[in-house]
């Protein structure tokens, strides 16, 4: 006998990974969208009239996020201006293909699209960087550069907020990673639904409580077009361990993912533990807990032919700086230009937020 | 999408091969004698220096915390395994006349026989107890053996805890045995079973210690075990309680502290200590002995952590140190506690939270409970009345706790445990149900007067 949908009389076609309930296609779409809507409302993610950039990689999470936000924006009249924002890391055979997907999404969802590239921001593509540093620490470069790139792109577009497609699995994985790495500062803030409210552009994660499996399910049944190839440089072994652990936990007890997020939300850091103070980078003005931000250090290393700079201990950077070997010249002129231009727009942005 | 976060150093330091090649004899880093054990990467110790290092570590744990006063009676939980054996020996050494910086507390030992939940026969249980009794008798300290079934008795019947001289047989009433069995059988998953036995064991230890007039319980958890517990607790929604579950002293009970004096030891150090002293720990089966690595959350976490530890030798200590930096906020005596594990409740959360998101998901995809959308409280059914129909009598003929009622007075982690139970009716130990029922009534009273309470 076919299983009936728990909500209507139709035939159920799926079992929700999150709750285990059998639902039909339409009821699943409805539940999925309602949950994202509730997350947005409960956490006060948006205010009417805001311009919101969707970090779009062409992957499943950001594709479904763009689609869902557009749908909810129309259905519940959030009055948001949505823009797709993509970062082109310059990875041949991976990003160029996924950007094609983003361009198709742009047409399908009729949203404006801005692509910002590592090449124009930093003067280096990931392909070039990998040639310099090899395949060992390349993901560090990419991770650091991407965050700034997204912010800079967003500032150019004068948006109020950035949303990213991080889902519940990603956040649970980050909680576990931060415990394994002993990074108490990140552990404290990684479960926040909105980050960077102080100074930097706020970023939020409307899919914080959405299971990855349900995102795939949604995309599958909605027949959404997304790009699902692993980055050719990636397989990050260590994070991979954490990922496998999360998947294994989910298989034992499906609520594990949300249970981990609950754990993260309820942790309290001892008052006497010193947390890094967020300041701004003395070279580019971007938020940083060090005097010079990681992106500047990494970039300097690349430009000086010292690709290990910024990978090891911070005191080595200080030592080299004291010896006058780094941070001496007028860096990559293009980079400076861009950064100065951005500083202006950052100020504009602050003013715009003040009204 | 690539999940690398900004600023994340992607790969931690991998195991280094060190300065020495395999097979080469290393000198002890302290005295230069030929080394007998490598504690980590390049730290080689000879036998004598290693044992000094262990005793020093053990004594300084007490010294630093200043938790146990001179002449204080403490109860030591002894399981017979590696770390219990080392703990017993370290205490013995520390109390002996020749010890420098002598320990000054007065220990008694207790073994909790958990044969009932391991499906052991009466004979097997007796045999284990005999072995343990022999070990404890040899130590010369006062001791006793208590079976886990005792937890099913109402609290007041465990009014005395006496020390015994020799082991005759286990005193287990058939009623308790039956009750524990049906409680055990109603728990459907191994993960929940492990949590259940942990909470029962710790409740029993506390009530034994209270009955015997002790104010501290010492347990033999090693750093390795606590790191695994930390991660598996996170995976089971107990993030808020980590300082209790893994700290030096578990202070969740107002009157009783659970102290972990060997938590600075790794499992390997404990095993080496026992080997050097020719101590023979008992090999007793546990719930997940011989089970697959994905049999339960704790078992999976154990496999995960020990696997990482082999490649990245700093794994255990890093996890451990992360835990050190956490605390429990607002711990005054007024705080509402979980009626099962006694830790402060972690369920009073803002609208935007994992707990409420889950409740919302459940309410959305099930037709029946659509009225409970939002809000953490999902028990608003009307009390059954005597039958007058107008609700005037305000009485309930038979106060039975439903699963939902019970969940309301439990912490997130314990809710997960009872969620994996077929039913809670009369199954949990009587004293748990009684205090839970009282808490439910108080909560209902509070709800009634809620509008008139001023925020503190």
What is the general shape of chain B? globular
| Tally of contiguous helical segments of chain B | 14
- So what's the oligomer here? heterodimer
Number of domains of chain A: 2
Query: Biggest β-sheet of chain A, characterized?
Result: 6 strands, mixed
The residue ranges of chain A in which pLDDT falls below 50 over 5 or more consecutive positions are 331-355
Average pLDDT confidence of chain B is 84
Identify the strand order in the major beta sheet of chain B. 5-4-3-6-8-7
Function (chain B): Plays a central role in 2-thiolation of mcm(5)S(2)U at tRNA wobble positions of tRNA(Lys), tRNA(Glu) and tRNA(Gln). May act by forming a heterodimer with NCS6/CTU1 that ligates sulfur from thiocarboxylated URM1 onto the uridine of tRNAs at wobble position.
Organism (chain B): Lingula anatina
Keywords (chain B): Cytoplasm, tRNA processing
Main location (chain B): cytoplasm
Outline the structure in words.
The complex is a heterodimer of chains A (355) and B (456). Chain A folds into two domains: 26-272, Rossmann fold (3-Layer(aba) Sandwich), CATH 3.40.50.620; 276-330, no CATH class. Chain A contains 14 helices and eleven strands. Chain A has helices at 25-42, 60-75, 95-109, 118-122, 126-133, 138-156, 168-180, 184-189, 212-222, 237-252, 256-266, 294-303, 314-322, 333-354, and strands at 14-15, 22-23, 51-55, 81-88, 113-117, 161-163, 194-195, 203-204, 268-269, 279-280, 287-288. In chain A, the strands form three sheets. Chain A has a six-stranded mixed sheet with strand order 5-4-3-6-8-7. Chain A is globular, with a radius of gyration of 21 Å. The N and C termini of chain A lie far apart (61 Å). The model of chain A is unreliable at 331-355 (pLDDT under 50). With 456 residues, chain B is an alpha/beta fold. Chain B has two domains: 47-324, HUPs (Rossmann fold), CATH 3.40.50.620; 332-375 and 394-456, no CATH class. Chain B has helices at residues 47-65, 82-95, 122-139, 174-186, 190-211, 223-235, 242-246, 267-276, 297-311, 315-324, 354-365, 403-408, 412-419, 430-449, and strands at residues 37-40, 43-45, 73-77, 106-113, 143-147, 216-218, 249-250, 257-259, 326-327. The radius of gyration of chain B is 25 Å and the shape is globular.
């Amino acid at each position: 006998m076919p299983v009936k949908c728990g909500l209507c009389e139709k035939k159920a076609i799926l079992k929700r990974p999150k709750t285990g309930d059998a639902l039909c296609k339409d009821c699943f779409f409805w539940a999925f969208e309602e949950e994202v809507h509730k997350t947005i409302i409960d956490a006060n993610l948006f205010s009417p009239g805001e311009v919101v950039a969707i970090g779009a990689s062409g992957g499943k999470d950001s594709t479904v996020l763009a689609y869902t936000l557009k749908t909810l924006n129309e259905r519940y009249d959030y009055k948001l201006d949505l823009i797709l924002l993509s970062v082109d890391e310059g990875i041949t055979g991976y990003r160029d293909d996924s950007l094609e997907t983003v361009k198709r999404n742009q047409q399908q969802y009729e949203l404006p699209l801005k692509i910002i590239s590592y090449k124009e921001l930093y003067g280096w593509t990931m392909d070039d960087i990998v040639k310099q540093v090899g395949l060992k620490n390349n993901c560090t470069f990419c991770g650091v550069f991407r965050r700034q790139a997204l912010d800079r792109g967003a500032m150019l577009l004068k948006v109020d907020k950035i949303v990213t497609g991080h889902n519940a699995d990603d956040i649970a994985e980050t909680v576990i990673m931060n415990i394994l790495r002993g990074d108490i500062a990140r552990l404290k803030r990684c479960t926040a639904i909105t980050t960077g409210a102080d100074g930097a552009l706020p970023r939020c994660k409307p899919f914080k409580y959405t299971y990855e499996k349900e995102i795939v399910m949604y995309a599958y049944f909605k027949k959404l077009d997304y790009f699902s190839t692993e980055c050719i440089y990636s397989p990050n072994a260590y994070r991979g361990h954490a990922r496998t652990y999360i998947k294994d936990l989910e298989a034992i007890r499906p609520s594990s993912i949300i249970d981990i997020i609950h754990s993260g939300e309820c942790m309290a850091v001892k008052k006497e533990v010193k947390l890094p103070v967020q300041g701004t980078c003395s070279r580019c003005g971007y938020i940083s807990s060090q005097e010079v931000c990681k992106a500047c250090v990494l970039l300097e290393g690349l430009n000086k032919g010292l690709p290990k700079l910024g990978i090891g201990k911070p005191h080595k950077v200080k030592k080299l700086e004291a010896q006058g070997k780094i941070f001496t010249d007028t860096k990559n002129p293009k980079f400076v230009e861009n950064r100065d231009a951005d500083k202006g727009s950052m100020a504009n942005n602050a003013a715009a937020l003040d009204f | 999408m690539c999940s690398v976060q900004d600023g994340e150093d992607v790969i931690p330091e991998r195991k280094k091969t060190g300065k020495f090649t395999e097979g080469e004899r290393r000198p002890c880093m302290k005295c230069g004698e030929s080394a007998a054990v490598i504690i980590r990467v390049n730290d080689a110790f000879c036998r004598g220096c290693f044992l000094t290092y262990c005793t020093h570590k053990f004594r300084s744990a007490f010294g630093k915390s200043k938790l146990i006063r001179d002449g204080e009676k403490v109860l030591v939980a002894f399981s017979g395994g590696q770390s219990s054996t080392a703990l017993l020996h370290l205490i013995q050494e520390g109390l002996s006349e020749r010890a420098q910086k002598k320990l000054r507390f007065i220990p008694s030992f207790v073994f909790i026989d958990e044969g009932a939940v391991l499906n052991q026969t009466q004979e097997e249980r007796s045999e284990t107890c005999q072995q343990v009794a022999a070990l404890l008798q040899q130590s010369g300290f006062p001791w006793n053996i208590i079976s886990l079934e005792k937890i099913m008795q109402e609290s007041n019947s465990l009014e005395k805890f006496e020390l015994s001289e020799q082991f005759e047989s286990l005193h287990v009433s058939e009623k308790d045995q039956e009750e524990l069995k049906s409680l055990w059988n109603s728990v459907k998953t191994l993960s929940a079973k492990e949590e259940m036995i942990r909470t029962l064991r710790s409740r029993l230890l506390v009530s034994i210690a209270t009955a015997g007039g002790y104010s501290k319980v010492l347990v033999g958890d090693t750093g390795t075990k606590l790191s695994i517990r930390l991660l598996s607790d996170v995976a089971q929604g107990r993030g808020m309680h980590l300082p209790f579950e893994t700290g030096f002293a578990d202070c969740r009970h107002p009157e009783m502290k659970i102290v972990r004096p060997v938590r600075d030891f790794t499992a390997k150090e404990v095993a080496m200590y026992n080997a050097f002293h020719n101590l023979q720990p008992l090999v007793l089966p546990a719930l997940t002995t011989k089970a697959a690595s994905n049999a339960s959350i704790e078992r999976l976490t154990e496999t995960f952590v020990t696997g990482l530890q082999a490649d990245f030798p700093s794994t255990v200590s890093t996890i451990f140190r992360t835990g050190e930096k956490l605390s429990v906020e607002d711990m005054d005596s007024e705080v509402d506690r979980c009626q099962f594990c006694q830790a402060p409740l972690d369920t009073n959360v803002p609208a935007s939270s994992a707990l409420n998101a889950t409740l919302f998901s459940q309410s959305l995809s099930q037709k029946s409970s659509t009225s409970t959308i939002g809000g953490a409280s999902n028990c608003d059914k009307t009390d059954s009345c005597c039958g007058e129909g107008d609700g005037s009598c305000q009485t309930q003929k038979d106060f039975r706790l439903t699963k939902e009622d019970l969940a309301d007075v439990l912490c997130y982690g314990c809710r997960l445990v009872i969620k994996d139970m077929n039913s809670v009716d009369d199954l949990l130990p009587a004293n748990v149900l009684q205090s839970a029922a009282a808490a439910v009534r108080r909560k209902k009273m509070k709800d009634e007067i809620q509008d008139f309470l001023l925020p503190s």
